[in-house]
Every structure is written in C-alpha cells, then in structure tokens.
Amino acid sequence: MFHSTDHLWSPLLRVLPSALILLLIYFGITFLRSISASRIRLLHSAKPASLIPDGSLTLVDLVKNAVPALVGPESGFRSVWWLPGGNAQTIYCSLGDFSQVDPIVYERKLLCVPDGGTLALDITPPFSAQPLEVGEPVVLVTHGLTGGSHESYVRAALTALASPEAPRFRAVVLNSRGCNGAPVTSPKLYHAGTTDDIRNAVLWICHTFPRSSIFGLGFSLGANALTKYVGEEGPECPISAIVSLANVWDFARGSPHIERGTWMNRFVYDFVLGGALQALLGKHRRIFYEDPASPLPSALLDEFLPRKNVRLREYDSAITPRLYGFEDAMDYYSAISSCRVVERIAIPCLAINAGDDPIVTVDNIPVCQILQSPWVIQAITGGGGHMGWFEPSTGGGRTFERWYVKPTAQFLLAIRELGLAARPRPRITEDAARGMRLQEGRPDIGFREVEEEAVVSSGTGESKLFSGW
Q1: Which of the chain's ends, N or C, has fewer CB atoms near its CB within 10 Å?
Q2: How far apart are CA 468 and CA 268, in angstroms?
Q3: Does one domain contain both 356 and 286?
Q4: Would the pTM of this model clear 0.85, i.e. be above it?
C-alpha cells in the first residue's frame, strides 16, 4: 500500500519561504555593509603643507599619488565575510590564533632612564643578523594597552616594513613599562599620554643611528602617545613622519562612550580595559608595596587588587591620579588627549580610524582641528573595528591579511623616498657620575644601556586575552 509523505514535508515547506527571506536579508545586509566598509573618507586642510621647497607637491598630493590603498581604484577596506561589523573584527583581533602568522625576531635592549625606570626596546632586524648601516631609516613603534612587540598587529606591520627579506626600515618597538617582559624597577608604570619614555627612546635612536631618518608608527593608546609627543615637540620634532592607527584622540569624549555606549561597551569592553590595567598593576605589585617612594599606599593596593570586574574609570579614579599626579580621572583624560596638540603638529601625519570601531567612536576624532592642520590627513574606513581591519588575502597562502599594513607601508615609504631635509635632533650630553647620556636642557630625559641583551622571537606564543588594546 502506498503511503503519502506529504504530511512530513508540509511543515518544512511552510518554514522554507521564511528561511529563504531571512537568508536573503542576511546576505543583503552583509553586502551593503561590505560596500559601506570599502569606502574611505579623507579629512584634511584645504591648504595642506608643501613637502618640497617649490610647492609642487603637497601632503595631499603625496597621498593621492603614492598611497593607492586610500585613493584610487585599489582603495578601500573590504572585510572578510565571516567578520561582519566592528565587534567581530575587534574581538577576533584578540581571540584569533596568530601564533604562526608573521613571526618576527627581535634583539632586545634594556635602557635605564633617569627616574630609575627601565625601558625594553625590541629591534628588528636584529643587529646580529643585519649589522647597522649608516643612514638606514628607523621606525619607532608604540603599541596598544598592555601590549608589546609580540602583538599580532605589530608583527603584521613589521613584516612589511622590516622583514629580513625586504628590510625597508630598522624597527624599534618601545615596550611600555611592565609590558611584554619589560622590568619595572621604579614605582611607575605608564599611561596613555606618556611621552617622556618616547623621548628617552628617541634619544637612544638619535645616539645609535646618528645619520638616520626616524619615522613613527603608533597603535591605539600608543598612537595617542606618539601623536601627542609629535604635537608637543612641534617644529623641533626629530621624527620625519608618523602613521597613527586607531588613535583614541579624545579620552574625555570617549570615556562616556565606553561606560554608557552599546551593550558590548558597557558589559564587555569596559571590564576588559579596566581588568587589563588592574592585571598589569597586580603583576608588578611587589615594587609598589616595597619601594618607599611608591605613591600607592599598601592599604589601597590591598583593597583594589582583589576586586572583581574592574571598570576602566574605576582604575583611572583609584590608581591613575595617585600614580601620575592627576587630580582625578577627568583631569587625566583631558590632559593626555592628543586632540589638544593637533595644531602644533609640524610633520606629515597620516591617521587612520574605522567608522565602526566600538572602542573609539568617530566622535572622538578632532575634525575641526584636523581641517585646520596642514600636516594631518585623517582617513576613516567604513569598517575594520578596533585594530582589526581583516580582509581577504591577495596571496601568500593566507585566507586573510591586515588591510592597514598597505597604507602604512605606502605612506612611510613614499615619505622616505622624498628624502626630506634632516629633522632637528636633541643634543646629547654625558653624565659621567651616573654613566648616562642625557638630553641637553632635560636632565630627566636620558638613558644608560643595561648590559643584558636577549633575542626575542615573537609569533610562536600568544597574547593574553584581549591584550593590546
């Protein structure tokens, strides 16, 4: 006897049209997002700076002619299909497995600085593999929150800029105090506006590479510190040009966005950022307990370090003001923001932010100041998240690559090829009593190389959860 199976299929047939509609809506939204994400907005002054004396090449001309990732038929960021939206791009930056991607070998130099602290500089290619060449260009790199030279986003850029196969620059990564194995030898860590440690590193570079042009590359909080340093130095800046990636720009404006923004901001990112800083302090707690000069009372450490679920402002209210001499969190946010010094920047600066960055809203970008600055060009991509910018790979056996590497390398190489006039350099004096080299007029800026060198391989290990922001 034949038994009809129509009754078995009928529920599926009723659901199928709705499922197809939802599927079409999903792919439609993904397609529209990809179109939006591919677009790039450029903000710059109507009177950009001239890069050569006769005025025939402006900063905007250089970007249009030499940075095809930003301008022209090859421009635009197009996300991989499986990371739609800023949150997915941002989270994958921290949770993805990059252990076999972009391995970099560094040579580490430890510098003792005048306040008793120690800086860890990671150099690639190592001098042991590629001896120093007179006049070789150097790029100083500053990383994100609690990050270091090991971060995947740093390694991706340096693979293009400083790999042994195509050494275009000698890279010097400044690992902030306490980060990535940098020892803490004074009761002081670092904050998002720390610029004196950049000065210490620049002084070492000027001494070690006396005839080299210096360039800069900053990521996230490191981008803010580097940009702030360039603005503070003004016309006397020793650096020839910088790229500022995912710069926070305005912490006073950005703090409410973290605290009261989207669900992810309030219940994920706020705790991740605060927890990362708390963990860094906890890792180096011993010196803050034992050093008589510690600005953090033991009672405060006893109460704060065991706390669970620490928000960013909690750390910046309880710890940061005492550690660095600010009145409160808002005084700190206002003082450290690089948006305050945009008008003083006097070297080529390319800034790149993502329009869907969940950490740094586009409202943080100081549009008015940038439009008045002849030296700053701000690019805003439609997508990319915070320090993600994962796009389909164009070769090399990979499934994806980091888009920002292209405009970064194109811009810095174009500036290098121009052969701009030498920048002013700080004068170096000797302090025989301490065995230090100091910056003339700034006894608080200087260095002494510590007789301990190490070869550091990055790419075989992984960062801590959500580190590097």
Answers
A1: N
A2: 15
A3: no
A4: yes
